[in-house]
Amino acid sequence: xPASHLHHVAVLVLEGxxxxxxxxxxxVFTTRASMPYEVRVCGAAPGLVAGGDGLSYHVAHxxxxxxxxxxxxxxxxxxxxxxxxxxxxxDALIAAHERGARLAAISTGAFALAATGLxxxxxxxxxxxxxxxxxxxxxxxxxxxxVLFVDEGSVLTSAGxxxxxxxxxxxxxxxxxxxxxxxxARRLVxxxxxxxxxxxxxxxxxxxxxxERFAATREWxxxxxxxxxxxxxxxxxxxxxxxxxxxxxVEDTGYTPMQxxxxxxxxAARELLERSERSIEQIATDVxxxxxxNLRLHFQSTLGTTPTAYRRTFAQGAQGEQGE
Length: 324
Hints:
Elements: E1 7-12, H1 19-28, E2 37-42, E3 47-50, E4 56-59, E5 71-74, H2 87-98, E6 102-106, H3 109-115, E7 123-124, H4 131-137, E8 142-143, E9 149-151, E10 155-158, H5 163-176, H6 178-188, H7 211-222, H8 231-238, H9 242-253, H10 257-275, H11 280-286, H12 292-303, H13 307-322
Parallel strand pairs: 1-2, 1-5, 5-6, 6-10, 7-8
Antiparallel strand pairs: 3-4, 9-10
Helix pairs in contact: 1-5, 5-6, 7-8, 8-9, 10-12, 10-13, 11-12
């Protein structure tokens, strides 16, 4: 959904709110000329909200902000498995959703979102430490503790802390396109995109020594998308066997190596469609997809649209931002 108007973002600070969880959406979507968002931080009422980890928050807005918002972020908070938020908070979240707002929970904010009933029958995630507690407290929620975030359309959830950055970048990609999301990632000094299917951190008895090596191989591949990239070539760069590379790659990213390469090529094509006037055939060659027909095929299967329609949509969005 490209931006043709200002999107209203509310960050709902609950008692015991975790400071990193509050800060991530507030910073990612903070109002600036290049970002068509307006952010308001709110609580159950204006004033002081006691937070977690030794911090408190003085918020300027109350629950009426949720009636204004297009996106409502619910940061994580302490002791989420003990008590649900007050009924007035739950009612305000339900009313915002019914009005068409997207609700996005970071980490243990998923407990507050689950208390609305809006996650019943849907997939959701939370910090891995609380995943079993969420499933026990809300058995109708299909809890997946092995992903970074889950997008169910109008309700979204993410795993702990830094996974909130991945969720915010995912929302930016949907709203503004790949170029804007990558620009925000560079500003945050964050990874440009980690799929929702990427595994959360899970404690291991034996340290895994390949993480940095595999990250270097992914960076190497991203600079060579126009060249042939085979499983053997990727494994050779990482200095492991193709079998080991495939197994560990799925654990790290949620994709097989060749699925990841294809997604990277489609993403590169998206950015070229957004930011250049190159033809479909030229872009297909640039990103290693060979022909315009091949690019159209993978665009349709991955994004459900055509390269031409995608370019038209995000060109209109860019014009709308420039006109504000």
